[in-house]
Structure formats: C-alpha cells, structure tokens
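Appendix B: complex inputs.
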Amino acid sequence: MKVHEYQAKAIFKEYGIPVPSGEPAGSPEEARIIAEKLGGRTAVKAQVHAGGRGKGGGIRLADTPEQARAAAKEIMGKKLVTPQTGGDGIQVRKVLVEEVLEIERELYAGIVIDRAAGFEQAVFVVSKSGGMEIEEIARNSPESIVKVGIHPFTGFKGFHGRRIAAALGVEEKMTPELSRLLSGLYRIFMEKDASLVEVNPLVITKGGAICALDAKINFDDDALFRHPDIKELRDFSEESPLEVEASGAGINYIKLSGNIGCMVNGAGLAMATMDLIKLAGGEPANFMDVGGGATPERIEKAFEIFSADTNVSAVLVNIFGGILRCDRVATGIVEAMKRVRLRAPMVVRLQGTNAAEARKILEKSNLKFETAEGLFEAAQKVVAINSKAGKVR
Amino acid sequence: MAILLNEHSRIVIQGITGGEGSFHAKEAVKFGSRVVAGVTPGKGGKDVDGIPVFNSVHEAVRNEGANAAGIYVPAAFAPDAVLEAIDAGIGLIVCMTEGIPVLEMVKIKKMLSGTASRLIGPNCPGITTPGAGKIGFMPNFIHSKGQVGVVSRSGTLTYEVIHQLTGLGVGQSTSIGIGGDPIPGTAFTDVLEMYQADPETSMVVIIGEIGGSAEEEAAEFVKEKMTKPVAGFIAGRTAPPGKRMGHAGAIIAGGKGGAADKMQAWTNAGISVVENLADIGRKVVEILHNL
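Resulting structure:
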C-alpha cells in the first residue's frame, strides 16, 4: 500500500525525523493560508502516488502566499502527467505547502528488503547523488550506491550509522545527527511493516542541518491486519475502481492495455495465460487470479469486470481444477452468464478434476462458448475469435 | 529415496481441526502419506478421522515420532506455528499459509540457520513424492512416479506442468512448490542441489516467474554445479513493471526482475527454456530420450 508524501512526513515527525515545516491543502485558498502562516518562500507539491512529479510540473515554488494560491490552483486544475502516470495523467486532490530550504547537498537514503539468498533482511541503500530517481543514480553513478544490511536481531547500531555517513561523505560532527535520522527510518520500516522507506532527497542545508525534503513509505499489504492506523491512510481515489472492486471480492485483478480479458485460478498460471495470449498474437486486457475457490460469486464478479472494461472484446477462461472441481466452475460460469450480459465472445478451458463433466455442462447450457482442451489451443482460439469480432465491428 | 519427503516421513498437520487442515490431511492419507498426528492448541485428546490431535508439536514428536510438519494455519498465527515446529526439532516444515508479513519471514529465515530444520514455503502448494506421500495442496491425480524432479514458485501453474508430464507418461521423483513470497524458506538453488545429488532424479523441470533474483541465482548454480539436464519456463513476460502480480514476490521493481532477463540467464546457463508453456512436457520427453 502506498501513502502520500504528507502522510509519510507525519510518520517521520512521530519518529523525530526532521522534515520541512508545512501542511497539506485541499484547495487553493487553503494553500494561500498555509503559505501565509509559514511566511517566506514556499514549495507547493502535488500529492499523488506517482513519482516524477517535478518533471510533470507538479512541484512549484512561490514567493508570496498569493503565488502559492495560484500554484495550487494550477496544479489542481488539470490532470498531472508524469513519467509514471501514463498519458491520461491523474487528478490532484491535495497539495503540500512547505517552507523552502537553502540546500547545500542532496543525498539519497532508502530501505528495502534484500531478497537475495543469504541476505534476506532490511537493507539501507544510500548514495551521495540524491535528487534523481534511484534507477537514474544506478545508471549514472552506480559506484556511489552503497548497501548496508541490518540484522533483525540486532537492529540499527552505531557502526551502521558510521558506515553510511562515510558512504555519504557526511562530516564527522554531523554523524550522530545522521545516525539518529537513519535509526528512525529503520524503526519505521520495522515497526510499521514497511516494504519501502525512501528519502530522496535527504538534504544538508546551508545552515548545516539534516532534513528529509521528500518522504515515501510503502507498506506490506500482508501486514496491514496488524496496523489499523496505517490502513486508514489508504486513498482509494488513487487506485483503479475496478481493481478495488475486484480485491473486495477476493479477486486479484490488474488492468492492462490489451483487449482479451482472462480469468484464471492461480497467479502463476494467470501470468502464463497472459503470456500465451501474447504468443498467439493477442494482447491481454488484464491479469486476473480468482484464487483456489473460484466460487460462483467470484466468477460473476469477474464477468462484471469484463463487461465494465470497454476494451474487452473477447474472454478466455482458463481453470486448472485440482481440489477445485471443474464441473462446479462450469455451473458457476453458466449461472453467471445468465445474470451478467457479457457481449464479448468467450473461450473456456477447464482442465483437471471432472473436466469431462464440466464440458458436458457447458455444451448443454445452450450458451455460446467455444471450448478448448489444450493450453495453447485455447489461446489461439480466443485470439482468432477476437480478430473476427474486430472485423464485424 | 527422492528428496526431503520419503517413506520415513512421519507427518504432523498443524491446524488439523480447521477446514483446510482436515481436508488436506485426509487427501494426504489417500495419497499414501503417513500422517501420524495433528496439532491444534486446546484440542489435544481429540482425533480427526482417527489421527490423534495434540496441543503442541512437541507432544506430537514425543508421542508419535513426527519428523515432518504441514502447516495450515491463518497468516496471523503461522509464524508462531513455524517457530514451534523449528523448536520441536522437526526436520521438514512445509507451510502453505498465504499472507505472512515479510518481516516475520526475515526473522524466521534467520532463526532457521544453525538448526536442522528445512522450511518449504510459505504461500506454497507443498511437496509431493509419488509412492511415498505428500504435504500440501497438490491434487493427487496429477502425479505419477518417475525420475523427473519438479521445482516451482507457483501452484496451479505447477499442477499444469506435472499434469502435462504425467499425460506424456513421464513420472516425477519429487515435486516441490517453494512458494510465491519474497522470502521463501527454501530457494531454487537448495532444491537443485538436492536433485543433483538424488540418484532417483535424472533431470529437473524448473518453473520461475518475475520478481527478485531467484532465477538468476538458479542459473548460476546450474552453470557451476549441475550435470543433470534442466528444462524451464518463466511466467510473466507480459507483466507490467511495478505491479504485484498476485504473488507477493512477483513484482518487477526498479527495472529488475523482468522475465526476459531471467530467460536469458537460464539460456546462458544451459537450461532448455520453453517460451510456450504448452511445450514443456514435450521438451522433457525429448531431453529424457537423449539421456
């Protein structure tokens, strides 16, 4: 789960990590009032989950409160397009109005889980070259990136701080302050079950202070059950409505740009099915894993999603029945077809337990299905049907 | 012998009185597994279809000589169940539970080192050795006894592959799903090492997916250490970056973990990679034919 910069900074403050003074605003007028309170120059920053805001004009500087109001109006008045939002862009609903600091140096500090065998723990990733995306740093100055792993049973220790300070080229008298900040970041990561904590840039001001100019925290979805306070920070307006609806029904769904909808049980098989569609010359409209219990309710919800996605012009159902019986899935499909008017033609492949009975149920239903037994055969059929459907339209 | 699970395995099912635990315990018995005990705290003294239930794994070890555990416990309690099994000295621990917080696995992984326990999973379909038994979700009918070792990060995709093999008359020595989480108890490389050493395994099928570097590590191992042939498939060539594709670990992050790089690494390591999942069975037949 992602949160906004202003929400991440509130957590930073709780842990004693210095951030610029500022407040979020929901309207241009609010932005003006905050800027007036702060006095001096301010930065007005779009609050969206996508990165690369600066490049899309989502961060503006203002000399006066009136300018802050105008900047907020501009940012909130049109959709923000950044390298990470896609061409359509996203609506900005909030801005963060902050004091502007005099910056001496920009650094990068982040914490992620190191998945590599033999490590498997939280790891600090730091670089002297802050201010640009970490991927960019990795391309431009890979030698500046230093990784320091933290063993979960010791936690963040003094030597970790000294190693990172040395890697960042931070002078000795500032090392204790930097260590306190890093230790706070680590505690956030561990205590809040984060999957990413990132400060980019971490700045040293002309006055010699250290400050988190930006803040990003992602949380482990699987740990939200023990963090009700974090769960409340979720901003549904940042997520695709169909994806939210699907997850409410226990379906893992991700919308893609193609036109062949697919419904599969199991994440690995769902990915492999998308790959097969592509290999057969089509483009998948989505990733969808209906899970081990492909219940009639889930199947119906899946069909509703296909009919709501106007891109979908054909559908492939690919279910491998293990414990799950194919005849039950077939009955579920027939029932769902009666309730949901799905215009897109469909190819159904049910393999595994009771597959033969399932085929009979589908055939007897008098509903229009194509069936397939082989994996690739199913993909080829749906691609062929799809291109035919395209010609008719 | 196959690997890890064999005729000497005495299985305890943690969470046996729950819906999943009791169902899969019975399925395992039908498959010929020796399920000697169940554990549900507070339900000790009862039985599930004649399988005695104990309050703790320690009691199951003491009374029934359990040496392998299958865990079907909800995510909030599963880390405790895994640690209990380690503490009781269980050699093979298989955890099916999905949704365990990553930081719990960070700690469990550190706990495991220096013990005699091996953890398979979590978030996995389990392990099956045809002729000896199974722990986990894998459907009974897909398997047949033979000489191909299977290892994978996913569930139904693995069933699909095993089913293809069986349909072509190709049996398996052991099939293992290591799970789709970012930090699995057992890595591809661990399983490859065991298959390489197992006299009953003559080749290996490996099924990978996007995210992390487990496939690259496997490639390194195959190149350096393996003499047995390996055939493979990687799911997620069409997956977009930055999105978690169902499995917590299946995400392309920071431009890393994409399918194309992984397939290249495997090809370079001499693994026979199929692009089309429907071809994996035939590829295996071809390799076995040339052995």
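The mean pLDDT of chain A is 92.
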